[in-house]
């Protein structure tokens, strides 16, 4: 069986790699659990100074696994979503710098998780979108709070309400991405940046990250809970069910009956 999450540690850099290319790195609950474990381990080990999050084979992630979604929608009392909640908490609790390297698709959670990274570098192939409304859902992972404060309310509304894909250049213009890099050199450049950070004072790095997060940290946690409650309600509703069934049947969802 393919190892869906690969972790490795070298020279103070801890890498968490999504490795499910046959499914475009669509994230399952088990993958959330494994990534959360990786973040917690990286946070606890003194030898780790920096964390890098990436995908594989030219893909970051196509978002949540629709099969998981459909199963959760049909069993709303199931407690499986705690795996994603554990992942959310592990990301926002990480004291050490978190760098994302993005190639190809960064869809849904693939975009919203980037909002909690300290630096994001994208290959020219990267494509970002937040198509929650298209699935009868709403933003998650506190993105309803974070994104408007990053790009402005009107631009956030455009990204969330239309759910259209944007290029790496556009994402960089909006401030979601720090820099666009050629795909064939992206990982080399990201790892060099990570190694440079790893040579710096760990106390200084963590203190600076804490200060940058500042007084918004509690607001982000509250937004994650609010987003999550609304998301769960919508996910078990008829409009999300129509969107999932349409996806499975490879047709456009019909929301005209609602």
Attribute tags:
three-stranded mixed beta sheet; about 50% helix; globular; 11 helices; about 260 residues
What does this structure look like?
The protein has 258 residues and is of the alpha/beta class. It is 48% helix and 15% strand. The chain is built from 11 helices and 9 strands. It has helices at 29-44, 66-74, 82-93, 109-112, 143-151, 153-162, 168-174, 186-198, 202-213, 217-235, 238-249, and strands spanning 5-10, 13-18, 50-54, 98-102, 105-107, 119-123, 127-129, 166-167, 179-181. The strands form 2 sheets. A 6-stranded mixed beta sheet has the order 1-2-3-4-6-9, with helices on both faces. Strand 2 (13-18), helix 1 (29-44) and strand 3 form a beta-alpha-beta unit. Helix 1 (29-44) packs parallel to helix 3 (82-93) and helix 5 crosses helix 10 (217-235). The protein is globular. It starts with a strand and ends in a 9-residue tail after the last helix. The mean pLDDT is 94.
Largest sheet: 6 strands, mixed
Helix/strand structural class: alpha/beta
Give the oligomeric state: single chain
Overall shape:
globular
From the N-terminal CA to the C-terminal CA, the straight-line distance is: 42 Å
Helix content: 40-55%
